Amino acid sequence: MTAADKKRFVRELFSSVQRTVLENVAKMPEEWDGHELRQYIADKFDGCISDFMHRGGARKRAYENEIVVRNL
């Protein structure tokens, strides 16, 4: 995947989660503040995780290693 492809993917993923969160704001409890909103947004991103990566295995371990080695 090229750098341009990665940027496009990230923009589309962020836009998708943003749309979903904003569409549901009216349904959220009034007492929610930044704490609940952060958790809700994190949960929406968590829902986007590939089942392939969620299961673990060699590819997940390689990913985690790259995060550490490249200080991402």
Structure description:
The protein has 72 residues and is an all-alpha fold. The chain has one domain (3-69). Helix content is 69%, strand content 0%. The chain has four helices and no strands. It has helices spanning 3-23, 34-46, 51-54, 58-69. α1 packs across α2. The chain is extended, with a radius of gyration of 16 Å. It starts with a helix and ends with a helix. The model has no long low-confidence stretch (mean pLDDT 94).
Please describe the topology of this protein:
Layout: H1 3-23, H2 34-46, H3 51-54, H4 58-69
Strand content: under 5%
Any low-confidence stretches, pLDDT <50, length ≥5? none
Radius of gyration: 16 Å
Q: What structural class is derived from the secondary structure elements?
A: mainly alpha
Number of folding domains? Answer: 1
Anisotropy-based shape: extended
Average of per-residue pLDDT values: 94
Distance between the termini: 18 Å
The count of strands amounts to: 0
The oligomerization state is single chain
SSE succession: HHHH
Largest sheet descriptor: none
Helix content: 55-70%
Number of helices: 4
Protein traits:
single chain, 72 residues, mainly alpha, 4 helices, 0% strand
Explain briefly what this protein structure is.
By secondary structure, the protein is an all-alpha fold.
